[in-house]
């Protein structure tokens, strides 16, 4: 039952973008007499400036994340956290992914692929991993891009709040999977 | 805060890299990621232009104002500083909808548009406003209704299993994000001061961050 439901949703999702691309201008032109072509070009002009404006912020964050990953610091962090995680019943196989998720999208997708290859898509480790992946975002990347685009330098509580939400997401992924799929 | 995290990350990387004998990989990663950053940014240009163009039409036709008005009962609680039917609300809602539907490519430009509009309301252009942090936190907690295509491809038929768990986990992290933002925004480390002092807030906030990291 749930399979047909998700299939249906995913099928529907394929039409969302085309529907928006044609629907919004159609409404604007038919109901409000907006000069759609002219207005589109006017808005599209900003695409380049915004993309270029985020480059320094992206370089800063991604270089730091890349160095951190390559140095093996993640393994050190893993060892430090192991006792605490054993205590709360967090499966050690899923920890690298939980730590990687806020740092790097491609890195965490790689770790999820590893889990699926090693334990199989049907395993609890893979299901927890996929839930984690789907329920959180690359916090540092989003922060760099979103704040960078408007030139905000002082992020205040954005990082602690984002990481706290990631931690809650990862832990609830573990318990929800064990509870509902176990 | 980012000053400390950034400095900490690159310092730890070099120190750990030296001990693990992976210093060459660290160097390579720094260079590769610098390159990748520009590729990502330039790769965004076309998609950004497309969605910003469509958004401009949505704005000109009044669609965004309509959406903003409809969802005011919810958004007024999350973003009390943003005035009624301000275009920022419309952009925020559109960005969240795009995220929910797994339309990553469409979500980013809509989110940047929302940030720009929130920046207009921000009295201190270099410091994030309460509304900006709230928006970012909800965004990074990932409001997901449809699974990312990559996960579906990777998990195959099993993806139906994790559909419900993903929605529920997403719900937990989003609620956590909203609560923690509301709690933190008035603490002495993060409170907005009329005349922001450089460094002072950052210094006090560093230990909190470390505590957070340890817990994970």
From TrEMBL, chain A:
All residue ranges annotated as the Nucleoside transporter/FeoB GTPase Gate domain in the record: 52-151
Signal peptide (from-to): none
Transmembrane segments: 12-30, 50-70, 128-147, 159-181
Domain of life: Bacteria
InterPro entries on file: Gate_dom, SpmB
Pfam name, any one: Gate
Keyword terms of this UniProt record: Membrane, Transmembrane, Transmembrane helix
Gene Ontology CC entries for this record: plasma membrane
PANTHER family, per the entry: INNER MEMBRANE PROTEIN YJIG
Protein name (Swiss-Prot/TrEMBL): Spore maturation protein
Source organism: Marinihelvus fidelis
From TrEMBL, chain B:
Keyword annotations of the record: Membrane, Transmembrane, Transmembrane helix
InterPro entries: Gate_dom (IPR011642)
Keyword Nucleotide-binding belongs to the record: no
Domain of life: Bacteria
Any Pfam family hit: Gate
Domain named Nucleoside transporter/FeoB GTPase Gate: residues: 42-146
Annotated segments matching region Disordered: 194-216
Transmembrane segments: 6-24, 36-54, 133-156, 162-184
Protein name: Nucleoside recognition protein
